Structures are given as C-alpha cells and as structure tokens.
Amino acid sequence: MIHLEHINLVVRDIPTALKFYQAAFPHWSVRGGGTGSWYGVARQWVHFGDDYQYIAFNDDGDSDNRDLSGHQVGLAHFAFVTDNLDAIIERLAAAGFNIDKDGAEDPYRRNVYFIDSDGYEIEFVQYLSDVPALRNRYDEC
Fold it and tell me: CB 3.0–4.6 Å: which of 45, 47, 81, 101 could bond 31 by disulfide?
C-alpha cells in the first residue's frame, strides 16, 4: 500500500499561511518545526497535520507562485476529500477566504477551489456516492 504522507509548500510567512489551513482543518495542529537553510537561505519550517498526514511549510518564499491561468510547468492544484463541503466553505469564509471557482456540476460529487495566501489552489471535494464507478467517472473529451 502507498498513501500520501505530506506535501511541502514554500510560503512567504508561516502564520499567514496557517490562517487558511487552520480554518480548513480545525482538527489538525502544528506537529513540530525548526530552522535550517536551503541552498544557503535561512528558513523556518513547521509540520501542520494529524498523526497520519501533514503539510510542511517553509518560509523562504521570495516570489509569486505560478500564474494559475497560464500554462507554466508547476503545481496546478491539490485536493482534499471531505464529508462536509459546506462546513469547509463556511470556516474559510469566516477566515476571509472566498471560493475562487466552483467545480463542474455532477450528480455524484461537489467540489470547489480556493486560493490560499501564497497563491496555491486547493480543491475540496465531497463525494455523493460510495460507488467508485460513479465517483470517478468522467466525460470523454
């Protein structure tokens, strides 16, 4: 078995980045952190998550994220599955983050996209069926 343990995001400021993720994941916490350097640049880092998965944040970001409307190579978005999409939308709105775009209309899932303070696009998906063939279906191009 293989599963994703963590992603590592370079951000400008860790407390600012955490504002978004703490609203989205109120059951997660900072698991640890420290200081170091990356190719000669000092940085701080934290792990934010639970006992099984986390997001690592490094605060040595010194430029803007890729243009999400462009076609540059790089991260397009990452996604999390939830059983209560409305609750995430409400928590993020209360923290000052609005939906960037809605997902496609689908009878078997709901999804929305947000942009965090460093320009990363995060998708939240709520599946409305437990049947994999329905959850994972797609319309052929």
Answer: 47
